Amino acid sequence: MADMIFYKAVLAAGLAGAGCGLAGVFIYLMNIPFIGVAIAHAAMAGGIWGVIFGFPAKASAYAAALISSFAIGPVADRSKTGANITLSIVFSFVMGLAFLGVGLAEGKNQLVMNFIWGNILMAGWAEISMMTAILTAASALIAVFFRQYSAMLFSRELAASTGINDKLLFYALLALIGGIITVNLDTIGGLMLFSIIITPPAIAYQFTFDLKKFFIISALSGALGAGAGVALAFAFDLPVSATAVIFMTLIFFVSVIFSPKRMKYGA
Amino acid sequence: MKKNPAVKMEAVTVEKGRKTLLDRVSISLKYGSFTALLGPNGAGKTTLIRTLLGFNRPSAGRVEVLGLDVAASAGLIRKQAGYVPQSLSVDRFFPVLAGDVIRMAAGEEQAKRTSAELRIENLLSRPYGLLSGGEKQKILLAMALAREPKLLLLDEPNLNLDMAAYRDFLSLVDRVHVKHKLTVIFITHLITQIPASCKNVIVMKDGAVAFETGAKRLLKCKKAPELIYG
Q1: Contact, B87 vs B160, CB < 8 A?
Q2: What's the gap in Å between the CA of B187 and the closest CA on chain A?
Q3: What is the mean pLDDT of each run of 10 residues along chain B (230 residues)?
Q4: From the CA of A252, how many Å to the nearest CA of chain B?
Q5: Which helix (H) or strand (E) holds B37?
Q6: Is A221 strand, coil or helix?
Q7: What residues of A are in contact with residue B52 (Cβ under 8 Å)?
């Protein structure tokens, strides 16, 4: 029984890490880190308020993630510094909503806490199936539209000038990021999710100039980092999500020190 | 040579808030022509190009590109136009190879053919962010040409290039213009940087067309700098 919990937790962490690693590539290369954290906290607020009003928590979280994705999409469209400041204000607002919900959710604390800290030990086959489905959907979207997404990551303006419908693809991407965040929310936790989104692409950045390999390294480092982090937490009886995040951050520091790109071309 | 113009603007006005970016601009450019858009910074040159691609919606007037109405067919026009921006700087470690940049716009075969034509095969496996300014512009030109466009729009592609790199780039543009009979619009703010193949110059000032003339005539005119920048 304990073995099964362990295997399922490691598998769930690996899938979450891979999914977040893929989503993170866009967030990292488009330089919109706050979009990830804003959607994560909107989903968290949606889930918490869903619990308070007696709605299905996952559905409420996804609805909130979707609404926030489409609301902040036009802001992120303008991208870079100005957008990040606006997104950080949106993030503060949804975080306020989430913690207001925490204060009001008397008697439903465990459900609410799962959205904040996660509970990977409770990951069942239903959660693992959903994580697999969203990871497959994300991989398929990226594979089918790889040329278009590459162009958008390189330059939205240039992509649009070649006739690529960049707005439609960007909004599809936001919906997918919202989906990835929501599916992983109550297993990984809203607070830890951001680290698992942003660290894997930062690791991949140290290793390759090839965008295809970048996606693969980011997904793999997310999967291995999160999975191994959970395994370490089990081995040393440590808090799971925190250990996974710290372990992944350590991988990042090691990758910076031994970065082949930095060694060859300088910092 | 087709009878209808490749680019036609009729009394086009583009506004942003209270500011008029283009003021009743009318131009007509033949298929296969090479036109320089000349004028000081803020004259409306880039706005004009962006309007041709449908990025700016005119508040008045009509724009036709390659026989299509921009208001209705911007997507189709963009697929038949090649665009080279002023410069596109990404982080030097950005994960994209120069060859991948060209392949973003076209298939493998087209990308290979264009790279061979521009003689830039040696750059393809190098990271885009680590190329020199001139090399980057050649890659962006290849990206624009790989789709075999009918119209090529160059928005001050010389902005960050030294003279040698600029001459090298210009000779490429001249070559592809002659070989493919492309319609080319080339933006520059310096009269001395008008390419050799360019026959026609449109001078812009304060969002309007100040005058249109032949390139040779303008270059011979001693009062040209005063007329353009004065």
Answers
A1: yes
A2: 17
A3: 84 92 94 92 92 94 94 92 84 92 89 88 93 89 90 84 78 85 89 83 92 83 74
A4: 16
A5: strand B34-38
A6: helix
A7: none
Please name which of B59, B50, B54, B48 lies closest in space to residue B18, comparing C-alpha atoms: B59
DSSP B185: E
Which ipTM score applies to this complex? 0.84
A 145-164: CB under 8 A from B: 147, 150-151, 153-155, 157-163
Residues 112-171 of B with CB under 8 A from A: 127-130, 140, 143, 147
Q: Which two tokens stand for residue A130?
A: 């959903």
Q: Amino acid letter at A13?
A: A
Whats the size of chain B, residue-wise? 230
CA distance A47 to A50: 5
Count CB atoms within 10 A of the CB of residue B2. 12
And the tokens for A205?
A: 């950045």
Q: What share of chain B is helix, strand, coil (3-state, %, to 5)?
A: 40, 30, 35
Q: Rounded to an integer, what distance in angstroms lies between the CA atom of residue A132 and that of residue A142?
A: 15
For residue B135, give the amino acid letter: E
